[in-house]
Amino acid sequence: MTDVHPFYESQRAQIEESMRERLDLAEPFLRPHLGSVEMQQVRAEVMAELATVLQQMPYVGGKESRMTDFFVRLLGFMAIGRVLRRRGMPPKLIGEIGLQSYKAQLLKTPLAERLEAGRQFMSPENQALLRTQAAASQAEKYPEDFVYDFVEPGPTDTFDFGINYRACGFCKFAERHGDRDILPNICGLDFIAYETRGIKLERTQTLAAGATHCNFRFKSTQAKAAPGS
Q: What ranges do the domains of the chain cover?
């Protein structure tokens, strides 16, 4: 049996607790399709599948990489998707259940904290960091990681900044482990993740759908503070 990377093993308790919370939040959406007994079986199967996902989760630099957080937060949806897929649930329904439960989980964080996280993400300091990280990603130090470019807005653009993902860690994971039908559900979570932090995401293409890159464009929807305030 493949061991879990020590970095993820050190976070296993938190990852499992987050999954249990997510299953609690997903239950109202699952119950119309599952009976009480079956719901308990699904819970057990998802937690067992999460253990498999943890073994499969690629190491991409730990705390030194911003993409590690994406793997930790979102690859658990592969576990839910696999279990529901085996039970014959349509991919579109799996995606909707995942989206609604993820939104509910995000909204448990107080609004002020979410908006502050959004301001930090959009800040000039973070943009400078993203430029550095994007340049570093080109070296492809970790084969299963993301590769991306920072995109500066042009004179007629309305977004604040963008990121073009030219290689996607989720796509690589899905290809390696037979999860391509679940992959679009992961992509669909991006919009709500940024929306709840006061950021508008525009994206018209994805690698998962066969494009050359994922074109993320970000614009803050929060009112800017007046100079000197």
A: 6-220
